Each structure stands twice: as structure tokens, then as C-alpha cells.
User: Fold these one by one.
Assistant:
Number 1:
Amino acid sequence: MTAEAAIEKVLKTYAECMSESDPAKARAAFHPSAHIVGYLEDGLHDMTVDEFAGFVAEQPAADSAPRFDVLSIRIAGATAGVIVRCDYLGLTFLDTLSLIETDGAWSIYNKLFHVEGPA
């Protein structure tokens, strides 16, 4: 499998974790040391993978697959930068994801999110 195909598989798991409210898929998509960071209306949020997985589990599953557009993928060796626009919880997010390949597997190492507005 190419690096791009492996990254796209991780991105699919990430999209499914949110649309299905599946904490196991959140843990599968993210590196155990990852952080999920960004601003919501109530201020800065900085979550560990376990905190994010718990947040995902508390949300209702989507009735249908929401928008999840991969805008760019840039691979540099065993690292990659990905920009994603997705709808989640009635909002449109622009996510900047850093991925890393460790032990032959790709995972999201950091997620910076920005709320663009209502979905």
C-alpha cells in the first residue's frame, strides 16, 4: 500500500469515528500521544486522544455521512500534513492534521481545528 493510500485509510477511519460516534475508531485513527486542539465558542480546547474519544462517544451518530473533504495531502518521508474540511455537530471545521508513520502504520499525531461557521 502506498503512503497516500495508507493515509487515506486513516482519514476514512477518522471520518467514521465522528459520523458513527465510535470512540474505538477515534483511538485507531490517532497516535496515542496525539493532541486535538482548537477554539470553540467557550474558548480553547486541548484534548488527549482519550478525551477526544470520550467526547465523540457522547455525541449522537449522524443519520448520513456528513461532508468530509480532503483538501490536500503533503507527504514528506514518514510525516504528512493534511487539510480537511468537515461538517460535525452542525458546524463546519477546517482541520489541519499532522500524521506520522511509526512501525509501518500511519496515524494522526496532531489535530488543529478551526470552526468556519454553521454547517
Note: The first helix runs from residue 3 to 19.
Number 2:
Amino acid sequence: PRAATFKHVPGLSAALLWETAPGQTLDAVADLSASSSSWVPPAGGSNLMLVTFPPDAVMMSPGFDPAAAGGEYMQLLPGLAQTFEMDSPGMHTTDTVDYAVLLDGEVHLELDDGVTRKLAPRDVVVQNGTRHAWRNRSDKSATMLFVLIGAHRVAQP
């Protein structure tokens, strides 16, 4: 596994637990543990990730340095960090189908149209390459398990 603990966003942690390559076969004698350079799988590949989100208040505190946090994201989450929008903090879009399960805590899913949905433990969300953000409006951390399956995005006419 590859783990990332963030200094500039206290309480944020991410672990890339497993990945499969495109075309992976069951009889392959290979180490499928996380080893690629990207936290977003290529089309046909998959990633299993565990992420702990601190309360949003961490990013609202007077000592929070967004530039330092952004640099840390780029260093620790290659491939994923580049999908985040500068003008809309937290919003991102990946070329993946995502299965997300809230394991602990409470989190809000913010969708592209501004609609938010509050999730409780064991709630499951399936994203199909949609623009979204995860918001932790509570006063304690929230932990989620994600399976990202890489896909090709078809351009809309």
C-alpha cells in the first residue's frame, strides 16, 4: 500500500491499498499491490483507496495555507491532485466509475448542480465520471472506502 498523511491539512490521510492494471488476468503471477505513479487508474484498471477527511473547519482555520496544501496534494496524490479545480475547492472530475462507501462519520456529497446529499455510515454512492466534492461539515473525521475503475470519457456532441 501507498499511504499519504498530510501536514498542511491536519487529519487528512489517504491510502492506495490495491490496484489492478488494464487487462489484468487472474492467473497472472504478479504483485498487484499499489505501485503505479497515479492515484487515478487508467481505463480498464482499478484502484482501492481508503480516505479520512478531517472536518471542513480545518480548511477554514486562520492558519490554513491553501498554497502549501495544494503543493502537498500535488506531491502526495499524483494523478488525482490534477483533477481538482482551482476556482472551486474540493470539486473534481475523474475518468472513472467510483464506488464509495462511508465507513465512519458523516459526509456530504456536493454534486455539479449544487445539490448536496448527506451520507451516514454504510451509505454507498456510485459516481459515473461526475463532477463532485466531498464535504465534512461535522466536527469529527469521516472515513470512506473508494473503488475507482478507469474508463474512457466519450466527448459529448
Note: DSSP finds two helices and nine strands in the chain.
